[in-house]
Every structure is written in structure tokens, then in C-alpha cells.
């Protein structure tokens, strides 16, 4: 008798916050415009009304201050969930994130832990102007001490945000903003998924598409198109970038012998580089062709009229699949 | 004694803003005398009026274009035009202006083509104008980040012996960012010729000033840097011209930076995407509408017989023309050119970018059957 | 009217620091009367004296250990001990202290074992003590970054209804960082019970205060946040106890944050690795030596007959014991344990870390032939 | 008749600054303690005395302010060279670097260029406490619009810094601080090397070690040890991470068929991931074994007493070489 509702990803995130706040009085939500306005994407809608100003509140406009204050509140028994309004507006907090959020537990040998979540609406595809569309996961994933999570569906958004809030370690929670309005059935009482468990979203036998966050629906679209052409593509959704689920990903790649990694972020020195590197290290002799990447270009995020050229699309994925040296096998 | 500052005389008088913002023309259009600042000349006020009516028209035309889907988004400065007009009008051609996303009116007053300015919000490119053509930096989106740049431009000018003054704009919310602090401090220590001009429009999106700062006023922030702070009625073009003009003159004379806070109001929502009813009342907006900067200056100029019907009509015609040019310019949809993606990342594209550009060209070639 | 702050009364009187820093005992050890602050009790001053002599000894012992190669580096607070002693002494056990790398004396006064404190500078681990044991945050290295944490701890305490006050320390140089600004502003807006205590020791490494700020004083920085600023003689333990004690009491009573600037001096180089002769004269150091905080309080207490020879001898003995314990504790070299590298990165090590730990264990196993 | 001097890397950098300042009046140097003190590593020693306060000066203590002011000075005709005192103390400037330094040329379609250099003493191996030993290259290398340079020798330090100052684009110049005191002959008039040219530091036929900055001497040490055991290792020094010299690196790897990438930085989502990914993509069929990585661990930089476990050493490199599936060839 599960409690299933049809929700957008935005609504699922809002529900996750509400349910977490109701379940645990130490969960507090703050940031820019998250109070009465409910956030510019309305993810915190209604929280101040329901839980009061002490539990969900607006701060002055200063991201380092927000993250730094969250560090202090976490040190003093709270579970802060803070919102950075857009990806590029988290950069002012970079020093706090890298030099404190990621390091406090280690610095104090586990005496001071920071159970806090930094929510970042991230990625492109919404026609946003400069600074509103960055895919910043690689900065965080490269920083030891952080968990980095990127859901690709409303159901995962709910479950993973609950898990993030429950985590006793800091989580950078990347919300693919172009999926905020995508709707699906969400089982609210399905239990909280563990971090570090990737999932096979579509079975397939010819090649494996590895994606996370906003790229998962694109990978699924490519797989659907490929199926029409008689090619069977498997799609793996990482769900958490850190920790990384080597077992699921490598098992998938070994089963097909070919793989394409898909990510909106610029490819150079990125999470997608890591996926190629680590999967190749582990699956080298199972690979019929080098793993290909379909990523954002190595350019600053382009203006809205040009973003389609930058973002991985199903066609570009299929081109990469075509390049996987089929003739030789 | 070097290394002992405890006896440093706190020369507070020159730093602390006066209790009331400077006002030279009251909301009904009557001149009010002021101890320090004189009413600008009739000519200057007429020029301001022309720029004000044009700016209002640009704001409202841009908002209309958003409703029609021809612009993606527009942060209107409706109600704040006097601030922006004055900020531009007090500068010489050699001075620099550092605007934010909300400062279209300042750019238009500086002489930029609104169609070029709106390239950003139309989504064609990040900046549509040549910053050197009018010495106007790209409109800054990340809040307060442009302020240290302004200090750098000003400091470089001083090192080169150039008489440049830099006008750096930001909002009330942006004063909370670390970059605001660092910029004011650098400017003060280097005595850089920068006028920091805060348009306090009472809100940072939904967050009212009282949640942004507990200071007596934002102008008081100057004290902590040794930078004089001044408050001015942000809907009074005359007061703005006088105060900003004096600040620019002082900076040009080597007097160092100043911090000017204008008290004004954002009549529209933050942008068209915002729903202001979630955080403020219509009553509040109504009260501010009565202080409208355009009608205020109009009342004064008309009362003094300075604004003739001919002059008013000429101004309206010019605004019509500009609005028409905006409609025309912004309905042209240039064919997006993917080569542009790679052309400007570096002076010489890296081999990596050359390869990526070839890939895209190849995709497009296949699409168009080349 | 909400949304119009132009009439906000600038309640400046309570924010602006007085012209002269508070001094209750002059450099010759004579009491000086003060309008606002009374001399602390003899008992409090004797306690401060004990902590001062101990702190001086800890500073000098640590510097000696560096010369002997038993500590990698030590930023001495020689000359600033009165600030640190007072900062710790005015707190209750439930309050929190947020120190920097230079604040060893504050930590020792708070009751921490110097050997645990110096684990950082010995190179064994990043923080050698349990921050919850004495409610002392890890000593912060990245400047000013600890200040927003202090605000967070204070705000959380207020939400929980706890009477905690947080004492947040930083140097003069650190006031230039954006985090200083953001922390003061957050504290003011949330009325968080934080005392921001700036030890202005005149230098940030080689950079003198005059190149750091053009403000009348660092305490004046409070004005821009609506935070009262107070200046105090940083070599006068009595004044420090009085001023910091009052600030803590006010914060505890819900009065919100305060900014206290102590005028003091860094007698030693920045650290042993620094060469202070490159940027300051011996004369300057000499002048400050005459204001030494330890001898000043000693002169006062001796003059009043409060410091008996027995008490002085007991204090010296205790300092000897602590110094001996430091020498002993810091010559023990624990076998470095590589498991520690992986044990504390996350509550549960990621599979990646487990694999890396196994790799290292394997390397070591081969080395030791296991 | 070349002008050759025996210099440490620190002295070579100092000479590069002096020579650049003498050659071009628009070059200005500023940062924390770079004036009378000459910087905590003395890289700017004597510049204020020689060129005056206007050309080399101390700033208030604020890294975002320093980088932001450099942006403005570069906009107004100067060539600023700024120093971040240590790697982790560049993080406060991260927003300025990512959102402006890297993007200004692109934003303005080449109208506003930023010829500026951000010098960062970086990496570990000097027994520094927390925050003084980060290898932050991956953050910058992932950010399109920046050049990222890391010299491994005094001669390269001189030439590459001159090239960086001459560049019309911003350069993040990473100085391996543990090499500051290593001394070698430097030809001061050898001409300025182009960016994007890796160099083979040692010829070898069995496997290729790919390294940059502080890891190059370690790779050379490993190669020397391997030679004693009869294994011939080639060593490639990237010199510039961005742009990346695919040709030299791939030619080298193809010539041996085996490779190990070495870097002090944590491996996950890093420059070393990128090297593995891009070399594998290009050289897949020439590889006898997957490319291995010897990198810093995925942990916060450890305290001095433990840093030896974290840093790639010659032994660990040789272990990785041993693992390159020799039996199968
Ligand atoms: C660093 C940064 N953080 C957050 C934002 C998102 N944002 C855009 S405008 C805005 C409010 C700005 O308020 P204010 O400075 O008062 O200027 P106004 O919009 O009122 O003109 C916010 C939070 C941003 N642009 N940059
Ligand atoms: C963010 C940051 N930038 C630079 C440094 C390097 N640094 C360490 S101490 C110091 C000077 C600090 O001066 P001040 O705040 O006056 O404190 P003091 O050392 O005098 O006690 C500098 C620049 C740092 N630790 N953190
Ligand atoms: Mg505003
Ligand atoms: Mg200092």
C-alpha cells in the first residue's frame, strides 16, 4: 500500500524538504529568496508558512556567508539545507566548500561532522543567460570529502534528497533545472536509497550509455531512437557521482563491450573524463572500442540561441555510438 | 609613530552621511533649498528629462517585448530611471561606467543602442556592444563582481595619469556580497577615482532591505573604509545630478572614492519571471508611484516654464523612434552561427577547440547535406 | 512604511567607537578612570595575570621548540597575550571560541592542553583537540573563514534557546576579506550573539595597517552593519576584560553582535619563517616592548599588593610545568598511521577510498615484509 | 653566445618578472606581501625597489579583490601579474576567475581581452600545514577560457612565465613550490616557448610516464631506477595543461604502447583523468594495457607527517609500471 503521487521533480524536491523538516526538527532551510517567495524555482514553496521563519528563512545576499553559516549551524546540532540560487552563484562560496565543508570531519578526526546539504539548481537547456547554466559538478566531485548527487527523475529527486538530508556528511545536491518540470509517479514511502548505487535505466546489449542528472533523459531518448534502427543500447544512471558505483557501471560496460559517457559539462578534466578513465582501467580487455564522450564543448556556456550546439543531444550520442568501431567486431 | 594607529583621528564628519537623503526637488515638483548642493542648471535638467522619458520608454518597450516573446527576460528599472540617467549624465566620454543587468537606462543615456544592449536578454550573445566604444563594461550578472573591476580600471587610469573617473553601479542586495567590501576597501586604500553608486530599490528579488542590512543606511557602509557616504533621493533627478556630479568631480581631483546611496523603488517585479505579489503589497507600490521621477521632474520643469510643449513633443518623438527601432531590431532573428562558439574563447583557439569546431561543422554539414 | 528606509534614523551614537581606545591601566601600571568601564575585580585580574604569564611562557617555549626543529612553524602571539587571555576568560564553559592560527594563548587559557593544540604545527594532524570538549573550533588558517561559522553556531544556539555566546577572533589583515563582511552582516541581521574580536597587531605579515585600510579605525567597520564598534588597548588586560566582558554580556542578553578592536603589536616576526627586518624597524618594536601586557599588569598588581611573591612563584611554577610538559609531549614522535588518512574523510569510506587504503596497506606490507 | 646562468626555479621566476617588467612598462605585479617583503617565497624580491611602488605593490588582504582589480587593470591597458600566496588561498577568488577572468574575451567577442597572469605557488612536499599544499590545477583546467601552465624546471619556469606574461589571454601559472629551490642552468635568451608544446624529457621504449609540474622530477627518478632494472621508461612533461599537446603525448604513448600518468592532485575527476581518457580515446589500439594513474589519494591533503603516503613517489610509479600487463605482450 504505497503512497504514490504524480509529481514534477520540483514538487518532489519540495516534498522531500517538507517531509524531512517534519521528521526532524533540526532540519533548517535557508538561502536567498527561499522564504516567502519559495525560491526562484519554488522548491522551498510553503516551507516558511508551514514550519515558521526559524526553520526556513531568507538570508542576506552572500553565498560564502550562507555556506559558512551552515557550517556553524551544523557544528551546533542542526541539519542545514541551503540553496544556491544558480550554479554560477555558488562560486563565491567555493572557499567555504573546499576548505571547510569538505574537510571539517577529516580535520577533526570525525569529532565535528557537517550534516548539511548544498542544493544547486544546475545545468542548461532552459535558455538562461550567462552564469545561469553552468554544470559545476566536476569542481565538487574533484574535492574529497563531499558527496555529489545528481538525480535524473522526480522519484530519485525525492529519495536522494531525503538521503542527502539524512547523511551525516555534506552533500552537494545538483538539481538539473531543466528537469524541474518533468513529471512522474513518485512512491513517497519507497525508502531512502543508499548513496553510491547506480541503476540501469534501460537494458541493452550493444553498447552502454553512462549518464547522470540532466543527461539521463537524453540518453534514454537516444536509446529509444537506436532501438528503431535495430541497435540495443543500455542506459546507466549514476545517481551519485561521489561515491561512484564502479560495480554497476563496470558490469554494464563489460556486458556490452562498448560505452559512451554523456554529460552537459565541458569535457576537459571533468567527471566524464573520470568515468572514461576508471571504466577503461577496469574493463580494458572487455572493450571493443575506446569509450567515447559526448559532453559540453570546452567553451564558456553559450548564449541561449546557441546552447543547442553545446548540449549533448540524442543525435550526437548516436553519432558517437556509430563510431564505436562496429565493423571490427 | 608607524605601527601604532590607536591615536588615528577618526575624521568621522566627512564620512558619515547626513540624516536625510539629499533632495532638491520634492515629489510635487517644488524646488527645496539645500545647504551643500545647488540645483543643476535648467539645461542639465532638460537633458535629464529627455533621457528620463526615453529611458522610461525603453523600459516599458522592453517589458512589452518580453510579453510578446521577443525578449527572454527583462529586469526593468521602471521607477529608478532618474538614478541611471544621472549616473550616465555626470560622466565625460573618457570616464567608465560599470553597470548591472538592471542598468539598461544608464547605458541608453550613455549613448548605447538599446538593440545592442538587449542582445544579452534576447539570448544572441552575452554582450552585444563594444565596451570600449562608449567605455561601458559588460552588464554584470554575478552580483558585486564588477566592483573590483571598476577599481582596477580606475587604478590603472591613475597610474597612467589619465583623468578617468569610474562610476560603478550595484543594488542594495549586492552590498552584502564580499566583493562589495573588497572593492570599497581597495578603492579607499589606493584612493582610486571610483564613485560607488548603490541603487537601493528596497528589494533584492523578494528580500526587503530590512533583511539585508541592519545598518542605519547603506551609505553608512562607507565609514568602515574611510569612504564618504552620501544619501540621495533616488527619484529626484536634480539631487542625483548634483550629488553624483560632485562625487565625480571630487574623484577626478584626487579626492578618492565615494559611496552614494539612492533611495528609490523597483516598481515592476524583479523580472517578468518574478511574482512580486508573494512578498509585497500593492499599497507600497502605490505610495512610490506618487514619487515618480519622471513626473516629478516634469512638474518642476513645466512649473518653471523650462519644458515647452515643443520640447516635450520632440522628446516624445525621439522616444517613439527609439522604441520603434527596438521593435524592429529585436524582431530580426539572426541565424545562429556556431563558429562564434569557438572564435573568442582564446586569441588562438586551442587544438582541442579546433577539433570540436570541426565536429560541429561536420554535424551541420550532414544536416544541411553539404 | 515598509519598503521605504530613507527616513531610517541613523542611530550612530551607539555604533561609532570612541576617539580613544579604552584603557584602564596605563603602561606604567597605574589605574586610569573611565566613564563607562570599571576596573575588573582583583581576583579577575590575578587570574588574568596567571594566564598571561602562562601564555607568555607557552609562546616562548613554542618558539624555542621551532628553533630546535621539534615544531615546524609557530606564529607567536608574544605581545598580544592580554587579548587572548581576556577573550577566553570572559567566556563561560557553554560559550564557543573561534580562534585563528595565532591564538594558541586563548586556547591554553580556555583550558586546552598546549600539546594537543600544537599537534597542527607539529604536523601530526590538522587539529589535535576535540572541538566539543572545550567548545573551541579548530584554529582557522584561511583568513576570516571562521567568522561565518561563528555566526552559524550563535544563530543555532539562539534557535535552540541556549544562552551561548560566541567569541570570534581574527587579525587586522583578515578584516579585508569578504568573509569578514558577510559574517558581520549576517550576525547583525540575525542579531546573533557573536563578539567579533579583532586583534589589530598592526601587520598582516609584512603589510602595515595603513595599507590594509583607510578607515578611521577597524572598529569603525561596525557602523556599516549596524554593529557597535569599540576600541580597546590591546596590551591592557584590565580594559580587555572589561570591554569583552561587557560585549559578551550584551550579546547574551539579546543585544546582538559587537565588534571589538584591540590595538596591540606582534613582537615577533609573523612566524619563525618570516624576516620582519624587511618591513619594520627595531625602534618600532622597542616602543611596543615598553607597553608589554605582562609587565603592565604585574606592575599594577604588585603596586596594589595584590600579587604576592608566593602567588607569583606559584604562577611561575605552573608555567614551568606546562613548558616541561610541552617539551616532553612534543618530542614524542608517534608512528604515523596511514589508516588515519582514510578513516575520517566520510562517515563510511567510499569504495574508492577502501580500495586506495588497501593499496597503501599493501605497499607497507611489502616494505615491512608482512 | 647565450646568456646562461645557474638559477633556482624561484630565482628564474624572479628573473622572468624583472625581465618582463623591464621590457614592457604595462606589466604590473601585485598581491599580498609581494612588495617590500618580496613575497613569502621571495619570487617578487627586489621588484618594488627596482621598478617602484606603482609597478609592484602590496594590496589589502583579499584574493577576490586582487583578481578582480587585475581584471579591471587588464581592461585598461595593463598586464597584471598577481600572486595568490598559496594554492588554497586562491579559492576566495574562484568566482572572479571562473565567471570573469575565463569569460571576458568570449563574452565581448574578443573586444575585451585580459592579458593577466595569476601566479599560484602550488602542490605539496614541503611539510606545509593544511591549506598550503593543494594541487588545484583541475579546477582551472576544467574551466574553458584559461590557460593552465605548470613548469617542472627552472629553465621552463623562466620561459613559460615570460610566455604567460606575453599571452593576450589569462594564464593560471602554477608554481610547484617544492621545486622553488631546485637549481639548474637557464638560458635567459632562449626565446619564449609556445604554449601547448609538451616535451619528452627522457627517451625510453618500454612505457611512457606522463607528468607535469612537481611530478616530472619524480617521474625522471622512477625512470632512472627502472633503467637500473633494465626497463626503459620514456618521460613526457606536459608543461602546459591547457592547451594540451595531444600530438606529442600520443606519439610518445604509441611508441611504447604502455603509459602511466602521474600527478600530485587527487585523481578523481582531475587532469590525470583527462589524460587517461583522451590518450586512450586516441591510442586505444596501440595500448597493450590500460593506462594507469599514480596520483594523490582522494582525501584532503594530509598533515606533514603523513604526506609521503599521499604523494606519488618513484616506488609507486614503478609498481604501476609493473602492473602494465607485461606477461601478456
Ligand atoms: C553572486 C550572485 N548571487 C545571486 C544572484 C541571483 N540574483 C540576481 S539579481 C538578485 C537580487 C539582486 O538585488 P539587488 O542587488 O538589490 O539589485 P536589484 O535586482 O534590486 O536591482 C539575485 C539574488 C546573482 N546574480 N549573483
Ligand atoms: C584566505 C587567506 N589568504 C592568505 C593567507 C596567508 N596568510 C596567512 S596569515 C596572513 C596575514 C594575516 O594577517 P592578520 O589577519 O593581521 O593576522 P596576524 O597574522 O597578524 O595575526 C596571510 C596573508 C591565508 N591564511 N588565508
Ligand atoms: Mg535591489
Ligand atoms: Mg595582524
TrEMBL record, chains A, D:
Residues 7-182 form the Transketolase-like pyrimidine-binding domain. Its cofactor is thiamine diphosphate. Transmembrane segments: none annotated. The keyword Ligase does not apply. GO terms for molecular function: magnesium ion binding; oxidoreductase activity. InterPro entries: THDP-binding, Transketo_C/PFOR_II, Transketolase-like_Pyr-bd, Transketolase_C. The keyword Oxidoreductase applies. Keywords: Oxidoreductase, Pyruvate, Thiamine pyrophosphate. This is Pyruvate dehydrogenase E1 component beta subunit. It comes from Pseudosporangium ferrugineum.
UniProtKB/TrEMBL annotation, chains B, C:
GO terms for molecular function: magnesium ion binding; oxidoreductase activity, acting on the aldehyde or oxo group of donors, disulfide as acceptor. It comes from Pseudosporangium ferrugineum. PANTHER family: 2-OXOISOVALERATE DEHYDROGENASE SUBUNIT ALPHA, MITOCHONDRIAL. It holds the Pfam family E1_dh. Its cofactor is thiamine diphosphate. This is Pyruvate dehydrogenase E1 component alpha subunit. Keywords: Oxidoreductase, Pyruvate, Thiamine pyrophosphate. Residues 54-316 form the Dehydrogenase E1 component domain.
